[in-house]
Amino acid sequence: MNKTVSRRKFLKISGATIGLLAASGTVGSLVKKTNAFTEKKKGGVNGIQKIPTFCDLCFWKCGAIAYIKDGELWKLEGNPEDPLSNGRLCPRGTGGVGAMYDPDRLKAPLIRKSERGKEQWVEVTWDEAFTYIADKMNKIKADYGPEAMAYFVHGIGGNFIKHLMKAYGTPNITAPSFAQCRGPRDIGFRLTFGEDVGSPERTDIKNSKCLVLIGSHLGENMHNTQVQEFAEMNDNGGSIIVVDPRFSVAAGKAKYYLPIKPGTDIALLLAWMKVIVDENLYDKEYVDKYGFGFEQFKAEISQYTPEWAYAETGIEPELIRASAREMAKYRPATLIHSGRHTTWYGDDTQRSRAIALLNALMGSWGRKGGYFYPAMMSVPGYPYPPYPKPEKGKVDNPGNTIYPFATEGHDTITNGVREATITGKPYPIKGWFTYGTNLMYAMPNQDETIKAIQNLDLLVVTDVLPSELAGWADVVLPESVYLERYDDLNVELFREPFTALRQPVLDSPNEQKPNWWIAKKLADKLGLGHFFPWNDIEEYLSKRLTAAGLSLDELKKKGIIRGEKKPVYFEEGVPAEFNTPSKKIEFYSLQLAEKGHDPVPKYTKHQEPPSGSFRLIFGRSPVHTFSKTQNNRILADMSDENELWINHNAAMRLGIKSGDYVRLKNQDGVVSNKVKVKATERIRHDCVYMTHGFGHNSKMLKQAFLKGASDSQMITKYKIDPLMGGTGMNINFVTIEV
């Protein structure tokens, strides 16, 4: 069977399956609706309504159409006008029905009534909750200054609370998406090209002739547009090269599969670049025109032969040479994918910089089939009053002296905020306000997170479900799910510019409230109401759209308004401008050298697993988003627990087989929940793999409770990236307990 057709069928079948479940009434058996939903239904509209919005099941924010049948949410489909979804949602997006009808949803504000972590609460009114929070925040400001509050946020829904925290006066606004995910990639590419890759990434996969994936699991990591383009590229006969210790879904489509030893990626990248330079396979015209420091770069990589790399990576020299020549054959339409989750070993910015340099040799930056230049519609922000200027700088990186390249344009580093909360240095952090992020799963070393929480005077958690972090909170605020609320406009940087609207398709069933309402009402309690001069969210949205010459009424009908298409490649007239000190692509980085770091990436060995141990690696599931969807009954019906991938021969030596349940024990003595074994030849002998986000221990998550094992629980060690502060987490080792 044609593999691309199979992938496309998977996408279609996944969406159709959930649509059929909804249409047949099976959703009702999977997700028992509350009385509150039933009561609201009675006042609804009979027949079918189609309401456009955009998804919140991951950061891709795909355009969607919600179908309301007789006052109930029936199904979700992709909006055909949306360039992110192209009319098709991934399984997670279609499963949003289950998020709305989750019986374990938070229903009313809660205030802790016993010690932290006991999950014992008193249900209160919104006014009581806001009064409690405002009193605590005002005292923190009086005693320590506004900088002593930190805000942890994930997703566009957090914009209005972010606005509130800036109005309050804190610079400490942080997201795990930087230090625990894409930060090394962003800085590595910025050091090379002067720009980030962006989100969604500016990858021109559909026009690529050769796609190189280094630990990037397209097809499992379900980023909708990229997966669709991956299928299209494969269908058109594109060449695929996959580097991974595990034979992933993407590896099954590869012409060249390189089963690399974990921790040696930089060695392979350097050897590839040496082959390409030595054999004059690089885009010489492009490099001569746009490159800086190429001769110094060439000298630095001269030592890294494929034979040397073989000893480090386990990849045969001829396979290294053959795959390097394959890339060069298709340049500039060769795309070495930047990846997304790039916090692996602590030298991750340099690894991402090596990926950027390999793309530069291909001439792919700014070229068709490589990395296009995205465009954005001009939609002015709301004309707010100026924020107060904090007296103290960000708590994680005073004067950019600790992490020299985590500079302006990036939020405060999450682990830096946590460290300051524990130590009180350079100044105390006494309050955390969180939105849409479960820090117990997002950050490494849960004990450090708990230690920091115990030093707080206030922890506020805003979420739709009672996560593990909520169990430690002083106040829990129940947010409406994305299908019940307006959020800020999504004015996206992408291949073609557009503006999208998230709008409510049904009312919330209980006392849940949208984030904009939470921010505005709390601002009133804090005496900051003048920072929210609009009466409601539609007034806010209308003012921004009117200033851009757009209409809220039109956007509510269509869900999306497209802007004028613009050139996206150098050959179409995009200016070849690079925001680096040299104003060119920096093969040799003087700014790195000036800060005492390697101007060209170098390879350093990482610790290997002790005898009898395995390196723990982890990744994503195509039907789950991080750790936030395992309680969704529809998505759990497809995948309700994770599996431990282990090499078949290693499993035989341990006396275990597929389907057995085992526990993991890491180097620090932490023991996991039980996890099902997947004994397979599709993974190297020196590592084990599991999907992230399972093994929940919040008793209030009745569907997800103790299903599978938590990789986050096992990640007690991490290594800080010296360039930008990210946490390398693939440095933990486990043994198997039968």
Topology at a glance:
Layout: H1 3-24, H2 26-30, H3 35-42, E1 48-54, E2 63-69, E3 72-78, H4 91-94, H5 96-100, E4 110-112, E5 121-123, H6 126-144, E6 149-153, H7 159-168, E7 173-174, H8 176-193, E8 210-214, H9 224-235, E9 239-243, E10 256-258, H10 265-278, H11 284-290, E11 291-292, H12 294-301, H13 306-313, H14 317-330, E12 334-336, H15 348-362, H16 414-423, E13 431-435, H17 439-442, H18 446-454, E14 458-463, E15 475-478, E16 490-492, E17 498-500, H19 515-525, H20 537-547, H21 552-558, E18 560-562, E19 585-586, H22 590-594, E20 614-619, H23 633-638, E21 643-647, H24 648-654, E22 661-666, E23 675-680, E24 687-691, H25 711-714, E25 719-720, E26 727-728, E27 733-737
Parallel strand pairs: 6-7, 6-13, 8-9, 8-12, 9-10, 11-19, 13-14, 14-15, 20-24, 21-23
Antiparallel strand pairs: 1-2, 2-3, 4-5, 4-15, 16-17, 17-18, 20-27, 22-23, 22-27, 25-26
Helix pairs in contact: 1-9, 7-19, 8-15, 10-13, 10-14, 10-15, 13-14, 16-18
Q: Can you tell me about this structure?
A:
The chain is α/β, with parallel strands linked by helices and 738 residues long. The chain folds into 4 domains: 3-100, Single Sheet (N-terminal domain of TfIIb), CATH 2.20.25; 110-171 and 390-479 and 514-550, Rossmann fold (3-Layer(aba) Sandwich); 202-371 and 569-594, Dimethylsulfoxide Reductase, domain 2 (3-Layer(aba) Sandwich); 614-737, Barwin-like endoglucanases, CATH 2.40.40.20. Helix content is 33%, strand content 16%. Strands 5-4-15-14-13-6-7 form a 7-stranded mixed sheet, covered by helices on one side. It has a 6-stranded mixed sheet with strand order 21-23-22-27-20-24. Helix 7 (159-168) packs parallel to helix 19 (515-525), helix 8 crosses helix 15 and helix 10 crosses helix 14. The model is unreliable at 1-43 (pLDDT under 50).
